[in-house]
Amino acid sequence: MRTLKFALSLLSLTLVFTSCEKFLDVKPESNGIAIENAAGDSVLYKSASEVEAALAGAYADFKNEYYQLDYYVNGDAQSDDAYAGADNPANFQIDDYKIDALNSNVSRDWAYLYGHIGKCNSVINNVDKCPDPSLTAERKKQIKAEALFIRAFQYFQAVQLWGDVPLQLTEVKTISAANLPEIYNILYPPRASKDEVFKQIISDLEKAAEGVPVTAAHKGLATKGAVYTLLAKVYATQDPHDWNKVLEYCNKVIDLGIYQLLPDYDMLWNNSQENSVESIFEINYSGGSSDGNWGTKMFRGLDWKKFNIPSNDLVKAFQQEGDQIRFNSSIYWGDVTGRWSDPHWPQNHYPFINKWRNFQEGSDQNYIIYRLADVLLLKAEALNELGDLAGAAALVNQIRARVNLPAITASNQAEMRLAIEKERRLELAFEGHRWYDLKRTGRAIEVINNVKGENDIPLGYQLNENRLLWPIPQAELDKNTKLTQNPGY
Predict the structure, then answer these.
(1) Cβ distance 92 to 468 under 8 Å?
(2) Using an 8 Å Cβ cutoff, are 371 and 279 in contact?
(3) Is residue 9 a contact partner of residue 94, using CB atoms and an 8 Å limit?
(4) Is the CB of residue 302 less than 8 Å from the CB of residue 339?
(5) Which of 19, 30, 55, 461 falls 20 to 30 Å from 254 in CA-CA distance?
(6) Does the pLDDT value for residue 32 go beyond 50?
(7) CA count, 13 A, side-chain hemisphere, 90
(8) Would you say 313 and 451 are in contact if contact means Cβ atoms under 8 Å apart?
């Protein structure tokens, strides 16, 4: 009965669209679908400009709400680096590890990621069919490679958040009663195992590496460095970790010879060096009403209480390390007396994130997603796991030397693991990495449940194994009976 209703509704919808406009393309992005137009034309993109516009649309989704706000909520407020802040109950659930399947952030992030995947699928599966002779075979190869990188990036987000997730790699071209069984499975897929998802991510990235260039017009476009960095992160995240592959891909990034640490840590954040030699992948904004980064306004300003308030625990970590340079670059202190209160901080000494400093309307502030320091510390982690303690120490000390900190004193593998964990925390604070670092190293439960607030009072978090993954959104379960819920929800 459900299948019959589905067929009738889709066929009715097709007739309605046909009567309105003869050559209408229908592309419901959330499912990665590109429905054949009413004329029966199976060529989705007829010109080079249409293909380029489709790829630009896939890149444009790096500027949606997921990457302007939720990427940092998920990576930082869900960790010990920041409190939720603001007044959003959905964010409070994330911060307190009390998410449920009706959480609005969970639902919208699922939609954003699968919408993004859908745009990539349309490009990947249709670029080669474009008949325009001005679109060369080499350009088609590069376009597909860029879309593969973007798709892999979205699936890496999804598999870290939910674990097993549906793999949607194709789109519907036609709708009819005859092909209903086939398209029903595409529209309503079951969850694929994490292993399958990681395998697909790696396959996409290996193909992408063959087609993307070494450099591009700016760091917001896919390059070999960005692809290699994501591959290193994937191999460090999947179980079991493949440290030889992590080392291989970190070395591939470094061996390109085009990235280097900026001499002054604050140059990364003072807006004088956007798309710098340290940056590997960076979301670019030109500013203004059409291309402004409204996300920065979510983290700093006095007009309303902001998201992602730096935590007491992180502040203490900076202070204990004597890490004044990165502390000053990462956290700004203000006076919010008479504006709002907070259970964690006094009004006259209130912290804000300081890395995104252009927080005006229509901001042209870029977001740095991947940079060389991240890769060097990931390489140090791989070397340590492979038994090269001295090599790991040299890389960590290179990062520390930039901010005038002494060499580390770790004398064995276990001590080095903790030293690298701390260095990544202080170096990459508020860049969306901390929660995922704690998860992939198996340290999340221990660290989070021992977090302390003001005056070293335990915050009483009760993170458990089930809460390391998010629930599948209830709305998705209601639509797709093949989906199953994660344990504990």
Answers:
(1) no
(2) yes
(3) no
(4) yes
(5) 55
(6) no
(7) 14
(8) yes
- Cβ contacts of residue 217 below 8 Å, gap of 6+? none
What does each C-alpha distance from 289 to 53, 182, 294 come to in angstroms? 20, 43, 10
Asked if residues 159 and 201 have their Cβ atoms less than 8 Å apart, the reply is: yes
The answer to whether the beta carbons of residues 113 and 158 sit under 8 Å apart is yes
Domains detected in the chain: 2-267+369-479 (1.25.40.390)
Dihedrals phi, psi of 53, to nearest 5 degrees: -65, -40
Interval 215-257: pLDDT, tens: 999 999 999 999 999 999 999 999 999 999 999 999 999 999 9
- Look up residue 361 and give its two tokens: 């309307």
Tens of pLDDT, residues 154-207: 999 999 999 999 999 998 767 777 778 778 888 889 999 999 999 999 999 999
pTM: 0.91
Long-range contacts of 85-91 (CB under 8 A, 24+ apart): 85/305, 85/306, 85/307, 85/308, 85/309, 85/342, 86/298, 86/304, 86/305, 86/306, 86/307, 87/305, 88/307, 91/307
Residue with tokens 């789109």: 171
Q: How many CA within 13 A on the CB side of residue 80?
A: 30
Give residues with Cβ within 8 angstroms of 456, minimum separation 6.
none
Residues in contact with 310: Cβ distance below 8 Å, sequence separation at least 6, in sequence order: 81, 82, 83, 330, 331, 351, 352, 353, 430
Nearest CA to 391 out of 193, 238, 267, 247 is that of 247
CA distances (Å), origin 487, targets 93, 441, 466, 469, 484: 17, 21, 6, 9, 9
Nearest to 475 by CA among 2, 103, 113, 33: 103
Q: Which two tokens stand for residue 78?
A: 């869900």
Structural element, H or E, at residue 266: none
List the one residue out of 24, 29, 17, 63 whose CA is nearest residue 369: 63
CA dihedral 324, 321, 75, 161 (to 10 degrees): 170
Q: Are the C-beta atoms of 382 and 247 separated by less than 8 Å?
A: yes
CA distance 239 to 489: 23
Scanning the structure block, which residue is given the tokens 């060499």?
Answer: 407
Q: How far apart are CA 458 and CA 289, in angstroms?
A: 44
- The C-alpha atoms of residue 350 and residue 305 are separated, in whole angstroms, by 11
